[in-house]
Amino acid sequence: MPRSVNSVASRQRRKKILKQAKGYFGRRKNVWTVAKNAVEKGLTYAYRDRKN
């Protein structure tokens, strides 16, 4: 029996992050691991700076 992986959900998850990384410079906009870190950090800053 073949291994079942939910690639539809995985792709959607990645696309969501890459969509948020739109407008970033260099690899931050199209490489999954780099974009994920950049978006995560950006959202952290956005949350923090709403408090200040």
What does this structure look like?
The protein is mainly alpha-helical. The protein has a domain at 26-52. The chain has 2 helices and no strands. It starts with 6 loop residues before the first helix and ends with a helix.
**N-to-C CA distance:** 55 Å
Please give the largest β-sheet.
none
- Uncertain segments of ≥5 residues (pLDDT<50)? none
* % residues in beta strands: under 5%
Q: Mean pLDDT across all residues, rounded? A: 96
Could you name the key traits of this structure?
mainly alpha; 2 helices; 52 residues; elongated
Topology:
Elements: H1 7-20, H2 32-51
What's this, in brief?
This protein has a domain at 26-52.
